[in-house]
Amino acid sequence: MDFSLAPPDHEALDCRLPTRQTMPLVVASPHSGSNYPAEFLAQAAVPLAALRRAEDAFVDELFGAAPSLGVPLLAARFPRSYVDANREPYELDPAMFEGPLPRPLNHRTTRVAAGLGMIPRLAASGEAIYRGRVPAEMIEHRLEACWRPYHLALSGLVEQTYSRFGAALLIDAHSMPSSVSAAPVSSLGPRERDTRVDVVLGDNHGESCAPELVERAEHWLAARGLRVLRNQPYAGGFTTQRYGRPGLARHALQIEINRALYMDEARHERLPVAGVVERLMAGLLEEIGNHALEILLPRPLAAE
Fold first, then answer.
1. How far apart are CA 45 and CA 243, in angstroms?
2. Strand spans (E) along 113-154
3. pTM metric for this prediction
4. Element (H, E) at 170
5. Which pLDDT tens digit goes with each residue over 8-27?
6. What's the CATH code, domain 13-84+138-296?
């Protein structure tokens, strides 16, 4: 596919397009941004290091081979602690804000209760991000500056891909803290005491992606020595719920990568082994992309 549109020229986005799209895939990284607005840092009650713990640091780099493989890559430049693009636009805690709210908010969600709405209330450490209440006009400002440009670009990439191939698969790329474990030890059998998990594949419990594609990804990663789980503890967020419509030939798969595989979490630095993970993700994209159409496209009925 030759893209007729240039990459979205928006300061909130990093959109890297292939010269020609050869696979029905789109890769998106909503949480790898690290451009912190000065006005946001001035409001923050926690240091920058605490805010950065929420980043899916370097995930856009782990999937950086996508354009050379014929796959578009979209990454947010804005940080997750400023605007979380993997939330509904008005999934917010009204108690955070000062002044008239723009519309009824979707505040009765587990994510809002945890302080992790579209504008997060809490840092990864559990500390309050803001010294006081946030002016309510910031809701629309951040939606217009960050959230809407991101999803406008992502929707366009998915629909262009669908128009070209007749099906589209969105890979929603994330990372997870190394403290995440597979399951409580008490619930595991005697041979399953290792609670390490390297990759979590989330398909909203079978709702957002063809199971054959998830199985192929799982088997490919496991064959390379990675411990892979499905939907535990991450089944997918707003992005997989919004874009994963298998009945409309639009699929979405969330991939969570353990940060200890490629970075020093305390220093917020890449490890030398990060290149190995980059090659693994490139191989995974090739594996999925080379078999996507045979799985996603409707099969013709056999002649009687």
1. 35
2. 134-135
3. 0.91
4. strand 168-176
5. 668 999 999 999 999 999 99
6. 3.40.630.40
